[in-house]
Design brief:
The chain is an alpha/beta fold and 427 residues long. It folds into three domains: 3-60 and 158-348, 3-Layer(aba) Sandwich (Aminopeptidase), CATH 3.40.630; 63-155, Domain of unknown function DUF2172 (Glucose Oxidase, domain 1), CATH 3.50.30.90; 351-426, Winged helix-like DNA-binding domain superfamily/Winged helix DNA-binding domain (Arc Repressor Mutant, subunit A, Orthogonal Bundle). Helices cover 32% and strands 23% of the residues. The two termini are 40 Å apart. 46% of the residues are buried. The structure holds zinc ion. Zinc ion binds next to loops. Zinc ion (ZN) is lined by residues 182, 188, 311, 318.
Length: 427
């Protein structure tokens, strides 16, 4: 089995392990998720108390749930939280009552257009309770009295998020973030977590230039909390990538940062453009995942977002159809491969200064032609040296060289290494 496929299988295994947990923006489901992620990479877990002011928001009460069901007159559970965490409206208040179906209907959420699927619904900031079920299940319920019970707690507690840091040679940071707040949904949340975990493991072996910080936090409020508590660190964030919907069979989609021409935007365009992969590049919109927060004008970070099919772009989105069968090992391995290629370029993209800029330096005298002898791409490698020398004016980086010359980035970077070794350029 190829190494990438093996990584894909392991990511899919992680998705399947995390799938049953009832995550939300706070609570033990998030902690259990981070416990499992912590088996793969060491995490620093942060607990932020309810009521903490974070930018324009306040950390909400913590929600936990143990059991929930709707039972018919005979006591049989017709809707059961134990079968799927999607069955309960997220942040439901506790309830214990018996009521006729006509009255219960106001608290039932279905998808009439997708009658076999259970929707994903939450009510974080509006106190409510409810159940989510398929239209088919609802249609089969006879009129009569039903027992409804939600054994949940909404109380002062904490918001939980985690960080994993891979120290680089410089303190400048690249942040990679994914949301951990959706319950049993595979593509929208778990695939991003799985790709982030295996990306972190791969990067750790490469001794990167930048310091890489991985964030596992609930959507919106988690990123806002992190930004509020890291005002100084934000100054050091040079680039970032939000991972979401990272495992479906659709083509890759990169969403640019608000700046539109940040280095990560150019790197992703180059990597996707020079690969054979079908892909789309979308402009920034102030909606979506946590790029909304990182790119808000007060921070204006160079953070883009990588997905396969973007949110709301597939019929299974926010339904029970987004299950582990909806994501594939191959797709996650492909997303991981693109991230690794992109970060390899980002990590290696540097500006150099030609130390012999008056006329072409004599490459032969320095053994630089012989070093190419026998290489099948000797002609390309030679051109790459000439391009690096030509554009190393302190203004252009290696990605500029690759784009302008049309040469592969790796060839350009290897040429820069050779020229650097020969003392002809300096960083
Ligand atoms: Zn979502």
């Amino acid at each position: 089995m190829a190494p990438m496929t093996a990584a894909g299988e392991r990511m899919h295994e992680l998705v399947r392990r995390l799938y049953p947990l009832c995550r939300s923006i706070t609570g033990d489901g998030v902690r259990a998720t981070l416990d499992i992620v912590g088996e793969y990479i060491p995490l620093r877990v942060h607990e932020v108390p309810t009521g903490t002011q974070v930018l324009d928001w306040t950390v909400p009460q913590e929600w936990n749930i143990r059991d929930a069901y709707i039972a018919d007159a005979a006591g049989g559970r017709v809707v059961d939280f134990a079968e799927s965490s999607l069955h309960v409206l997220g942040y439901s208040l506790p309830v214990s009552a018996t009521m006729p179906l006509a009255e219960l209907r106001a608290h039932l959420h279905t998808l009439p257009d997708q009658p076999s699927l259970v929707p994903y619904r939450t009510s974080y900031y509006q106190p409510d309770w409810g159940f989510c079920l398929s239209q088919e299940t609802l249609d089969a319920l006879p009129d009569g009295e039903y027992e409804v019970r939600i054994d949940s707690t909404l109380a002062d507690g904490h918001l939980t998020y985690a960080e994993h840091v891979i120290p680089g040679r410089v303190a400048d940071e690249v942040i990679v973030s994914c949301h951990v707040c959706h319950p049993s949904l595979a593509n929208d949340n778990l695939a991003g977590i799985a790709v982030a975990v295996f990306l972190a493991r791969a990067l750790a072996e490469e001794k990167p230039h930048y310091t890489y910080r991985f964030l596992f936090a609930p959507g919106t409020i988690g990123a806002i909390t992190w930004l509020a508590r890291n005002r100084e660190r934000v100054e050091r964030v040079r680039h970032g990538l939000v991972l979401a919907c990272a495992g479906d069979r659709g083509e890759l989609t990169y969403k640019r940062s608000r700046r539109g021409d940040a280095e990560i935007d150019r790197v992703m365009r180059h990597v996707l453009g020079t690969s054979e992969r079908p892909h789309r590049i979308n402009e920034f919109t102030p909606y979506g995942y946590d790029e909304r927060q990182f790119c808000s004008p007060g921070f204006d970070l160079g953070v883009g977002s990588l997905s396969r099919t973007p949110y709301a772009g597939y019929p299974e989105y926010h339904t029970s159809g987004d299950n582990p069968d909806f994501v594939t090992a191959e797709a996650m391995a492909d997303t991981l491969a693109v991230c690794r290629e992109a970060f390899a370029v980002l990590d290696r993209n540097r500006r150099y200064l030609n130390l012999s800029p008056h006329g072409e330096p004599q490459l032969g005298r320095r053994g630089l032609y012989e070093s190419l002898g026998g290489r099948s791409d000797a002609k390309q490698a030679q051109m790459a040296m000439l391009w690096v020398l030509s554009l190393s004016d302190g203004e252009h980086g290696l990605l500029d060289v690759a784009e302008r010359s049309g040469l592969p980035f790796d060839t350009v970077a290897a040429a820069a290494d050779a020229l650097h070794g020969a003392g002809l350029i300096k960083a």
